[in-house]
User: Fold this.
Amino acid sequence: MTDMPQKTIPESSLTGEYKYGFSTDVDTDTLPKGLSEEVVRIISQKKGEPDFMLGWRLNAYQHWLRMAEPHWPNFSYEPIDYQDIRYYSAPKKRTDTPKSLDEVDQEVVKTFERLGIPLSEQKRLAGVAVDAVFDSVSVGTTHQKELEKMGIIFCPISEAVLKHPQLVQKYLGSVVSYNDNFFAALNSAVFTDGSFCYIPPGVRCPVELSTYFRINAKETGQFERTLLIADKGAYVSYLEGCTAPIRDENQLHAAVVELVALEGAEIKYSTVQNWYAGDKDGRGGIFNFVTKRGKCLGRNSKISWTQVEAGSAITWKYPSCLLIGDNSVGEFYSVALTNNHMKADTGTKMIHIGKNTRSTIVSKGISSDYSNNNYRGLVRIMPGAENARNFSQCDSMLIGNNCKANTFPSIEIKNNTATMEHEATTSRISAEQVFYLQSRGLTKEEAISLVINGFCKEVFKTLPLEFAVEAVKLLEMKLEGSVG
Amino acid sequence: MKTVFRGTQLYDGFKDSGVDISALADMPWPTFKSEEWKYTNLTGLGEQYFTPVSRFEGALPDRVKDLFMPGAVNFVFVNGLFLEHLSETGKIDPRWQVKTGLDAMGFAKSSVSDLAKNETPVFRALNEAFVKDAIFIGVPQGVKGCAPFHIIHLLDGAVGRQAIFPRTFLKIGRGAGAIFWETVASFDEGEYFHCPVVEGLIEEDASLEYIQAQGHSAQAFHIGSVRIRQERNSRLDSFVLTTGARIFRNNVNVVLEGEGAEARVNGLHALKGDRHADSHTCVDHAAPNTRSDQLYKCILQDKAHSVFNGKIFVRREAQLTNSYQLNKNLILSRECRVDTKPQLEINADDVKCTHGATIGQLNDEELFYLQTRGISKQEARQMLVRGFVDDVLNKIVNPDLRAVIGKMAAF
Assistant:
């Protein structure tokens, strides 16, 4: 079941367009294409999962069979052939489970080094604990020991299933159930890895936890699942980054992220998504169909989503908050940049259930070339949500006359003590501002980059420092050459 | 295989009308799964039994005269049928072209009808199939300054469960100007299904003020459409007031087709009891340099439910568009429900489009302040509500009409 070594695209040929577009030659353990109950069983078996997991996966698979693929977003795409995808691909390991990084294929370690992810523990100065997911499995998690001393569990989810089954059983699917939607059901049936994190009561996680996702193998889909639990009074800041090689065909990425914040807990979840977005003519790229949802379960809890969406041929996701606990807070900060033929339909849902719940939505969309950028959001205030408060702001910027920017906010209010404000603007990048900067000696591209950074500043300032720097660079790189 | 009209009996009442409704049965009946009908449940309407109106036999309440607007040309329709003896046909400016009945139907295939493609096909088809009486008003080139034209649609539910499908065509010629008012009123709490269509063409440099006051019975079903096509440098000032119904849905579709066209699309929902009102607006900027401005205010009490869906659509060629939309909701009691969805769809880059929505209750501090000045709480509330409503009422230019509508919208 080993693939032939794959053709590597030399990095030099990419001329700064997508610098993570290389692929890595590693021996992989891959399942043949196709999805069946058998495949689900094999995945579960390979992971040595307990029975409850297999049962859960099979339930999800049965539900998925009965569900229809949704087609409501504001764009269309070629039909996905679910039998033409490999549901499992893992770099071959020398032993069954890597005991230390030395046992991970050096090619994989190099890949992550090229991506700038410090996998080796020597680079502790980076101050980030990383769980790196390569295709379907987690290849290494750093800083595990220090975290363990504080009682923090940060490990691949497949490991958590074996070592902490009671936590997994309690929380897995408690936010996004296995039959939540078509892609979540598919993920529940075939998810291969992802990160698991548990912060015990009262612990403030001292480092930023991070997962780096990499799709490497051809014709694979990546179905990872992240589960984050912040117990009473805990705090965690979590980062997620993603890249993939350049390929002509579309690859499906259907992940699920679940966050649970108990009383007084706070979770900050930041994403810089830079999956391969296809070439100038819109060929290839990742379909990023992700379900992300957080539950503010306890009183005074807080979940904050920050996302910088700069990649993927299609991004279709709505990181959401269920504000159940009284006084809980949900936040959503997003920058979505689309160029060439990229399509993005993204936004958030804020469901206010508890009393005095508050939510803030700030979304910035930038669209250029032939791209299509949509904000879609829902703010729902349930009858019991006394004194709920929401503020939403969605701004769009258009660069060029072939792109689209749409805004679809839904607001549903069932309690008269609610206060909510929504505003949205759409406009062109200001020619005057660009002209002024050019008159001060900046090139047109620098000027535009500066104006856009200013436009996104409100969101960038909520990112952890390293990520903010990366995000600014990413936007600059993406906009290169797209400004006419 | 034909789609079975599931769980609904609405078409049963239409079977004996002699009109072929087989095409209707193939059209999907909207459910909450459709984005357009997400917040307005039509299952109740589908289960009703109504017969299309053929003639009016009831006695006309004298009160209809109370609805006449002084200084205007008043025309009366009862259950969608024109009553000539009550209408002030003599007062029409001789230059105007006014036709009713079959004569008016000749204009049915106007260019404006295309705008219906945004609407739910089944109601468009129902109106086309069952329209019994229509009115066409043509204002010739350059004619302006005439008295306002006022159509009174009296809906009488006492004569039995009727389905009423009126149609109005307006054509404002080049450089002409006209003021057009429409009052929909029901004197009793009867049950009826009202499905009107208004189509208007505003030619180059022409202007139209179009004001609709919809006062239905609490048991009524209303699904109506207003479609306006605007040519170069034309101007539309529109306002729709509704006090709701059991199900009230109004679509306002405006297309700005000529350069420099300008549209103001305003509205007010004043809802009490368990009334419902759903306004869908769509302003389509299809030419460069067009402007639109929308203000919809909703005020709710008891168990009322208000839905607003406003769409601004800017086509690729519509550069230099300037578009503004605001929806404000004031909720006065616990069990009200508000759903709002302001939408922007922009395909041109050199544009300025803004929309906003707010939902809230009366400000406690403002109430307190007024009370410290010796104003009773009740009075203070009324003052604040009045202030909220006046903002949009003041968009109505004519003071008489503003007073009438203000009274209808009183809280």
Notes: Residues 50 and 161 of chain B are 5 Å apart (CA to CA).
